[in-house]
């Protein structure tokens, strides 16, 4: 079976292997991990024609440089506004290209976005924990963080010429407020805290990693010192520390906590949230639980339509020229 | 047996079932019983449950069910309560109390007006039960620290506390599984692995298990630890 071998020339902090994550382990203190931006991760695999949920590399703002030592393999790179250098050529992110022995691929942040994904037409060999390669960054369990000098082997490596080219980006609405369902502990806050949350403008702080994102803005004061029995928490929970500063829990979140949660960001808006960078602003809009169900169902439909479009191969060069209406009839006279 | 519960919607994908607002043995039993009932016959769309001290989180697939449908399914289970889960197994956990492995022991002894040896005796005599896992992988919160040796959390967490540290705060105790900061008092260290590394049973405890701490000397600790490292 053909394989391709890479060496990591450079990797910033929080560049990790991720698959779709591990569910069913929250009861043992294990957060789901998996990609911060699930849609960008899915898009990379789908555009290559891969099955869903396989292992990919999540690239932080620290960037990643891979050198192909041997073999040929097609790769997809998605997420945020990332930029690529393929050997000496500058390439926009959201693209599929083929790497060959001796090639170098550098992924670095562009003007926007926090996380990029590199998926291969093949299988990344990596460590697994509890049946998943998803890295839990706090413990480095799972596939783990990539480090300089590390070798990466791609088995069943394939070249997919029919997939090479640009990947359509999803139509996010980056400026729309993040939708939240209030609670479960809004009663522990001063009366106008909910209004401050939904009426205020917040800013992503520097304290942002795979566990969570602290945000700056209006304080959300608590009603005195509280002692809430430690309870389960979910991704998207907005927990507020004693000084009134909120943090949003993300993929590697702690599984329980005793801080009061004023609201929770709905799952459909997490991918948009995580691509924000420190200094960018965000706003929240409260919706009812019923509205949240309707919202996530509508979002799921849009996502599956988007991914269905990506799944279609572009076909041979001739078919692509035909479809993209670039042939002007010249080839088929 | 509490069968009266309140429900809260959490975002678009979870339901919190609350049995009490403060720590309470009956609430803890009710959580365990409902958890068992849901695991035995999960309502449509349920993905997983997370038992905690006074409440149970039920996460679900919002494409398959919603908060109201799931709450109705869970109410049916509460109306026909199953017997509370059995006591669980007794899990021995070794612990060495040498000074360098338990840097907060003297402070705990001072706070309790006891000698270190008396703190160790009281600690070993405790009746520990696994209340929940939380925070980080394999962090099992054990209830049952004797009132004589209960101390509050330290004001400032200590960084880089080694894996296997046996730590206490108020009525709870845990054995750390990662190198992490903690504000709990470190009284000893255990070579017993809570993250077993075994595929079929990756975590040593089930919720509800009893835990019996066994004192070991330094030689036994080093021996046990080297075996763990070799494995």
In short:
The complex is a heterodimer of chains A (333) and B (231). Chain A has helices at residues 38-48, 193-199, 270-274, 289-311, 317-323; strands spanning 3-11, 16-18, 56-59, 64-70, 73-78, 83-86, 89-92, 95-99, 104-108, 116-120, 123-124, 151-155, 165-166, 178-182, 202-208, 212-216, 231-232, 237-240, 246-249, 256-257, 261-265, 281-282, 284-286.
**Mind summarizing the main beta sheet of chain A?**
8 strands, mixed
Let me know the largest β-sheet of chain B: 7 strands, mixed
| Percentage of β-strand residues of chain B | 25-35%
Strand order of the largest sheet of chain B: 5-13-6-7-10-9-12
Helix content of chain A: 10-25%
Separate helix tally of chain B: 5
Protein structure class of chain B: alpha+beta
The CA-CA distance between the termini of chain A, in Å, is 41 Å
Number of strands of chain A: 23
Q: Point out poorly predicted stretches of chain A.
A: 327-333
Give the SSE order of chain A as H and E letters: EEHEEEEEEEEEEEEHEEEEEEEHEEHH
Name the chain pair with the biggest interface and residue counts per chain. Answer: A-B, 41 and 42 residues
Overall outline of chain B? elongated
Account of the protein in words:
The complex is a heterodimer of chains A (333) and B (231). Chain A starts with a strand and ends in a 10-residue tail after the last helix. Chain A has helices at 38-48, 193-199, 270-274, 289-311, 317-323; strands at residues 3-11, 16-18, 56-59, 64-70, 73-78, 83-86, 89-92, 95-99, 104-108, 116-120, 123-124, 151-155, 165-166, 178-182, 202-208, 212-216, 231-232, 237-240, 246-249, 256-257, 261-265, 281-282, 284-286. Chain A is built from five helices and 23 strands. In chain A, α1 packs parallel to α4. In chain A, a hairpin with a 2-residue loop joins β6 (83-86) and β7 (89-92). With 333 residues, chain A is of the alpha+beta class. Chain B has a seven-stranded mixed sheet, with no helix packed on it. A four-stranded antiparallel sheet of chain B has the order 1-2-4-3, covered by helices on one side. In chain B, strands 8-11 form a two-stranded antiparallel sheet. The model of chain B has no long low-confidence stretch (mean pLDDT 92). Chain B is built from five helices and 13 strands. Chain B starts with 5 loop residues before the first strand and ends with a helix. The interface between A and B is large, with 41 and 42 residues.
């Amino acid at each position: 079976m053909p394989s391709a071998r890479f060496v990591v020339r450079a990797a910033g902090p929080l560049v990790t292997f991720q698959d779709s994550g591990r569910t069913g382990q929250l009861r043992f203190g294990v957060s789901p991990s998996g990609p911060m931006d699930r849609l960008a991760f899915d898009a990379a695999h789908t555009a290559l024609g891969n099955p869903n949920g396989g292992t990919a590399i999540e690239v932080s703002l620290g960037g990643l440089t891979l050198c192909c030592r041997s073999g040929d393999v097609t790769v997809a790179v998605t997420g945020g506004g990332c930029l690529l250098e393929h050997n000496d050529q500058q390439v926009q992110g959201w693209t599929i290209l083929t790497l060959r022995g001796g090639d170098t691929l550098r992924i670095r942040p562009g003007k926007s976005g926090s996380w990029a994904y590199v998926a291969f037409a093949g299988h990344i060999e990596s460590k697994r924990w509890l049946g998943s390669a998803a890295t839990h960054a706090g413990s480095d369990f799972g596939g783990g963080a990539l480090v300089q000098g590390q070798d990466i082997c791609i088995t069943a490596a394939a070249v997919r010429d029919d997939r090479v080219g640009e990947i359509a980006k999803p139509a996010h609405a980056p400026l729309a407020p993040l939708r939240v369902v209030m609670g479960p502990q809004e009663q522990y806050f001063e009366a106008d805290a909910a209004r401050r949350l939904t009426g205020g403008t917040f800013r992503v702080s520097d304290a942002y990693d795979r566990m969570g994102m602290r945000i700056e803005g209006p304080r959300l004061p608590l009603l005195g010192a509280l002692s809430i029995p430690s309870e389960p928490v979910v991704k998207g929970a907005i927990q507020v520390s004693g000084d009134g500063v909120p943090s949003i829990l993300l993929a590697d979140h702690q599984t329980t906590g005793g801080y009061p949660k004023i609201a929770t960001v709905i799952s459909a808006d997490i991918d948009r949230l995580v691509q924000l960078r420190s200094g960018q602003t965000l706003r929240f809009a409260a919706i009812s639980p019923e509205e949240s169900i309707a919202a996530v169902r509508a979002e799921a439909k849009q996502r599956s339509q988007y991914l269905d479009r990506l799944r279609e191969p572009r076909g041979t060069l001739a078919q692509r020229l035909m479809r993209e209406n670039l042939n002007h009839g010249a080839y088929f006279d | 047996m509490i069968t009266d519960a309140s429900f809260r919607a959490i975002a678009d994908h979870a339901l919190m079932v609350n049995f009490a607002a403060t720590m309470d043995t009956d609430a803890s039993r009710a959580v365990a019983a409902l958890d068992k009932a849901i695991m035995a016959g999960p309502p449509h769309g349920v993905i997983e449950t997370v038992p905690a001290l006074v409440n149970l989180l039920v996460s679900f697939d919002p494409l398959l069910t919603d908060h109201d449908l799931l709450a109705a399914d869970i109410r049916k289970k509460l109306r026909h309560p199953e017997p509370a889960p059995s006591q669980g197994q007794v899990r021995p956990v070794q612990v060495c109390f040498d000074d360098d492995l338990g840097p907060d022991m003297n402070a705990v002894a001072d706070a309790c007006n006891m000698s270190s040896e008396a703190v160790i005796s009281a600690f070993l005599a405790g009746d520990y039960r696994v209340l929940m896992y939380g925070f980080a992988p394999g962090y099992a919160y054990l209830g049952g620290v004797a009132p004589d040796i209960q101390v509050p959390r330290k004001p400032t967490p200590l960084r880089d506390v080694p894996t296997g540290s046996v730590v206490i705060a108020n009525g709870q105790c845990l054995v750390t599984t990662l190198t992490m900061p903690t504000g709990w008092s470190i009284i000893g260290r255990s070579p017993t692995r809570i993250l077993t590394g075994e595929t079929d049973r990756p975590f040593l405890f089930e919720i509800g298990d009893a835990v019996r701490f066994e004192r070991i000397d330094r030689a036994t600790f080093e021996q046990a630890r080297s075996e763990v490292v070799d494995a």
